[in-house]
Every structure is written in C-alpha cells, then in structure tokens.
Design brief:
Blueprint lengths: L10 E10 L2 E11 L15 H8 L7 E6 L2 E3 L4 H7 L16 H5 L6 E2 L2 E2 L1 H7 L1
C-alpha cells in the first residue's frame, strides 16, 4: 500500500497567478494534495487563501498556471465542472448545518441516494 507521502498527488496547482485591478492576489502559488492528506491554509487577511480556493473550485479563473487532477491537466470552467471531478468547497462555517455530520455537510445540496434512500455509508467513504 502506498503511503500518502509517497503517493502521487491527487491534486496539483502549479504557478497559480490571479490578478484583480491594482492587486496581485496570487503570485505563482503551488499546492500538492495527496490521497489521505488534510491541509489547512493559514495566513493573514489578504494573503490569498480564499482566492486560491476559489480558483480551485472554478469560482475564479487563474490568469496563469495550471491545475492537474490525478496527474492530468484540467480546465475548470465552472464550479459544476470542479464538483464533477469531486472538488467541493464549503465556504466558512456559516454554510454548515450543526445537526449534520461532516460527511453530510460536505454533500449538502448534492446528497448521495439510491431509490430515494440516503446512502450514508457511501457518503462517508466518499468524504
């Protein structure tokens, strides 16, 4: 079995640049995420954390750089295209439902079901 540190990246963001009028929000950011890893983006307000995630989720288009998913370059034109690959974003904790599990919150709005029945086991595994 391959450990997360030696597995090839599931997601790679290379040289991501995002500019807004008068502002360089991202100046060539790289990010690798391997299977089983959990990452936390930390930084001061204005450091580009939200901008990077919005590029990953296709809410923003990068001005430069590339995104690879499972080693293949992808063009994420819309948030739905990102979600079709399994890339989903939960913005802030305001969008969470406290009485739902983490997995249920991740799939909120696009729940996994079969014949009208919730697929909790599949939801947990997918999360």
């Amino acid at each position: 079995m391959t450990s997360p540190t030696t597995a090839p990246p599931l997601l790679e963001m290379r040289g991501i640049v995002k500019r807004f009028p008068g502002v360089l929000a991202l100046g060539g950011v790289d990010l690798d995420v391997r299977p089983g890893e959990v990452h936390c983006l930390l930084g001061q307000n204005g450091a580009g954390k939200s901008t990077l995630i919005k590029v990953l989720s296709a809410s923003y288009q990068p001005d430069e750089g590339e995104i690879l998913w499972q080693g293949e370059p992808v063009a994420l034109a819309t948030p739905q295209a990102a979600m079709d690959l399994g890339i989903s974003t939960i913005y802030q904790e305001l969008d969470l439902v406290p009485d739902l599990s983490v997995a249920e919150n991740v799939f909120l709005g696009h729940e996994l079901s079969s014949a009208g029945m919730s697929q909790r086991g599949q939801t947990n595994r997918a999360t």
